[in-house]
Structure formats: structure tokens, C-alpha cells
Structure to design on (412 residues):
């Protein structure tokens, strides 16, 4: 046998591994591949990299997930957990091992929902539904809000309790809705559209529910709800689940609150704190005015001393007279303002009294209404013979029947 021939066909270990590495990387079937299995021997290295084995009943494969890829994982993998892993199968040249280089890990059973979530998220982002510049600002001091959620869940109790504790004058419109199940997303979307069409005075709408699994929160990941939030002219606050839960509704909404309770904390100011800060401002203004008056008084005293020193009697008398005129004008202006305010208050009282229907009734008038629809009778054409009527007088009501009617021609 030719020794040269033998030497020619001998390869170093490194060359073999490099060759195998090239073969693996050139095979499209081994790239961007999903592998289903159970995690074992999991190790979270201090470097931030994750090492584990993915196995099934018959075989296993080594896996590594580097820090840059596992940074956004929503859970910590554990031994015994069944998962789906996305990555590339390559050769680790140094040891000659082939292993799966993971880029994404999702829990098995949640994979389809997660992929649907990511697909819709990317679609809506590309359409501009998540842009910050299109998000509407919430008012600093809301007066009327609406809450779309389950009427029996803890979320509505938390929102109402916290909101009214922070600002008791707040008006809250509770809009009951399904928040879980196949019909929930459509129903919530319809409620948002209904509020936009019929309640123009709302400051904003809170949409949400308490925590739950990905499946339980799925209504807030559906496209029909996302587009309803996007087209709403009333600002939308998304308050879904716990702080770690993110839904499509969170990205589209004008404000994302980590929990329903946080939604109330973030959007409703504390009345007591507002009053406290207003009192601080009033105190500062009063001190500033008093200080300015002191400066004026000091300047006036200094001027008097100068005048007295030179003893210009005529100028002194003129200054006295001018000062009296200023004081008189100030007093007159003050009295005028007080009189004007008193007259305005009295006119408002008179106007309110005149508009009070009971005051009119007390003077001997009455209100006649058609029975049973209780429509106030203003013209004779509203009733016919035989109609039942109700007459409201100062101390009660009278009921009767129209026996005859006669039109009057009033002089203008």
C-alpha cells in the first residue's frame, strides 16, 4: 500500500469539525427550525447565557441560548417544562458537539397564541396603530369617565373605590361587558363605539379586567378590539391583567396601566392634594402682596421724611390730597365690586326662584298633565274628550276626565 496515499487522506480533528460545521450551516433544514421537547439539566450561567438539554422519549439534543436572545423571555425555563424552541442547529467546533442555538422559547400549548399575538402586533405596528404621536392626552382633572369591564369582577370594585377615594366628585359610568371568551372582544369593541356615538362628554374610557392566563386575556389581543380603540375619539386607558401582562390593547391605547387599580391611581388626581397645593399657592400670593404693600409703605414713609426735611408745604398738601384721592378711588372701586357681586347674586337667586315650578304653583297656578303618559298639556289640541288628566296643585294632585273642551282666542 502506498504510504503517500494514506497520508493524503488523513485529516486533523479541527478540519473534520470545520467541515461538519460548514455542512450543518449550509443545510436549510437545520436553520430557523422549531424543536419540541422537555427541558432538563437547565443552567442559567452567571454570564447570562442559558444551557440546557431538550429531550423526548427517545433522544436528546444540547441547547444554548445566549444572553442577547433570552433577555426578552417572559419566563424562566425550568427542568421538566415542555417547550418549543426556535433556532439553528450548528457544530460547536471546540468540542465537536452539535447543538441547537436557541433564539426563542415558548411554552408548549401557548405557542399558537403567542405566534398569533406577535403576528398581529407586527401588522398593527406597521400600520401605525402604536405611534406615540397619535395618542390622545388625558385631561388633568376628569369629571366623567366610563369603565368597560365585568360588573362582577374585582377590577370594577378597585377602580370605583380608588377613584372615588381620590376624587369624590367624579362621575363614573359603568358599562358591563364580557371580558373573556369568544364574544368578549367584539362586545367590548361595540361598547367603545357606542360610548363614542352617545356620550360626547366623557373625559376618557377605562377598558380592562383582572389578571389571568394568556387564554383568559386573549380578548384584548384581538384585531377587532384594537381597531375600535384606535378609532375612538375618546381617550382609552388599557388596564388589563397584572403588571407583567402585555396585550395588543396596551399598545394601541392612549395610556397603558399595569393593573385596573393603577389605572385609577394614574388618571384620577387626589382632591385633598389639589386643595393643599392651591392653599399653598394662595398663601404665596398673599405673602407676595403683603410684601409688595410693605415696600410701598416703606417708600411712602421715605418720601414723607424727605418732604418733611425740605418742608415744601404746598407739595406736601398736594401729595396728601392725591393720596386721599387714590384711597377714595380704591374704596369706591371696592364698594362698586362688592355691590356688583351682591346684585349679581340677588339676580341669580331671583332667577332661580322664578324658574322654580313649585314657586309658581304656590301662587295659585297648577300643572296639568295628560294621564297616563304624564305629558304636560300646553295646548287644547293635546287632549280629547274622555282623556284622563292629572292636575298638580300646591298640596297634592287631582285626577279627572275631559268632558268638554273649548278653545279660547287670546288677545296678543
Amino acid at each position: 500500500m502506498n504510504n503517500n496515499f494514506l497520508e493524503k487522506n488523513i485529516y486533523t480533528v479541527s478540519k473534520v469539525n470545520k467541515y461538519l460545521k460548514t455542512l450543518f450551516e449550509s443545510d436549510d433544514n437545520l436553520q430557523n427550525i422549531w424543536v419540541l421537547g422537555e427541558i432538563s439539566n437547565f443552567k442559567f450561567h452567571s454570564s447570562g447565557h442559558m444551557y440546557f438539554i431538550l429531550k423526548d422519549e427517545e433522544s436528546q439534543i444540547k441547547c444554548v441560548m445566549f444572553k442577547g436572545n433570552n433577555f426578552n423571555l417572559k419566563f424562566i425555563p425550568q427542568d421538566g417544562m415542555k417547550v418549543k424552541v426556535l433556532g439553528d442547529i450548528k457544530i460547536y467546533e471546540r468540542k465537536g458537539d452539535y447543538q441547537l442555538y436557541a433564539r426563542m422559547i415558548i411554552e408548549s400549548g401557548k405557542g399558537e397564541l403567542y405566534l398569533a399575538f406577535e403576528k398581529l402586533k407586527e401588522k398593527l405596528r406597521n400600520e401605525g396603530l402604536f405611534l406615540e404621536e397619535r395618542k390622545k392626552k388625558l385631561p388633568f382633572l376628569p369629571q366623567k369617565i366610563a369603565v368597560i369591564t365585568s360588573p362582577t369582577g374585582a377590577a370594577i370594585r378597585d377602580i370605583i373605590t380608588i377613584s372615588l377615594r381620590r376624587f369624590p366628585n367624579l362621575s363614573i359610568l359603568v358599562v358591563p361587558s364580557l371580558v373573556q371568551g369568544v364574544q368578549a372582544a367584539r362586545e367590548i369593541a361595540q361598547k367603545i363605539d357606542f360610548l363614542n356615538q352617545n356620550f360626547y362628554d366623557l373625559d376618557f374610557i377605562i377598558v380592562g379586567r383582572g389578571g389571568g392566563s394568556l387564554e383568559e386575556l386573549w380578548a384584548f389581543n384581538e384585531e377587532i378590539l384594537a381597531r375600535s380603540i384606535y378609532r375612538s375619539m375618546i381617550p382609552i386607558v388599557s388596564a388589563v391583567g397584572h403588571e407583567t401582562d402585555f396585550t395588543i390593547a396596551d399598545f394601541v391605547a392612549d395610556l397603558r396601566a399595569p393593573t385596573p387599580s393603577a389605572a385609577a391611581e394614574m388618571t384620577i388626581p387626589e382632591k385633598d392634594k389639589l386643595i393643599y397645593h392651591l392653599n399653598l399657592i394662595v398663601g404665596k400670593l398673599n405673602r407676595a402682596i403683603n410684601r409688595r404693600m410693605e415696600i410701598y409703605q416703606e417708600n411712602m414713609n421715605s418720601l414723607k421724611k424727605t418732604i418733611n426735611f425740605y418742608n415744601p408745604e404746598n407739595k406736601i398738601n398736594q401729595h396728601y390730597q392725591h393720596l386721599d384721592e387714590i384711597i377714595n378711588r380704591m374704596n369706591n372701586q371696592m364698594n362698586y365690586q362688592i355691590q356688583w357681586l351682591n346684585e349679581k347674586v340677588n339676580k341669580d337667586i331671583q332667577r332661580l326662584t322664578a324658574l322654580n315650578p313649585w314657586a309658581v304653583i304656590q301662587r295659585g297656578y297648577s300643572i296639568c298633565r295628560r294621564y297616563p303618559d304624564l305629558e304636560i298639556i300646553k295646548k287644547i289640541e293635546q287632549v280629547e274628550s274622555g282623556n284622563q288628566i292629572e292636575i298638580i296643585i300646591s298640596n297634592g294632585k287631582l285626577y279627572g276626565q275631559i268632558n268638554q273642551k273649548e278653545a279660547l282666542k287670546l288677545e296678543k
User: Anything to note?
Assistant: Residues 115-131+143-269 form a domain with the Rossmann fold fold (CATH 3.40.50.10550). The chain has a mean pLDDT of 87. The two ends are 137 Å apart (CA to CA). The CA atoms of residues 39 and 54 lie 5 Å apart.
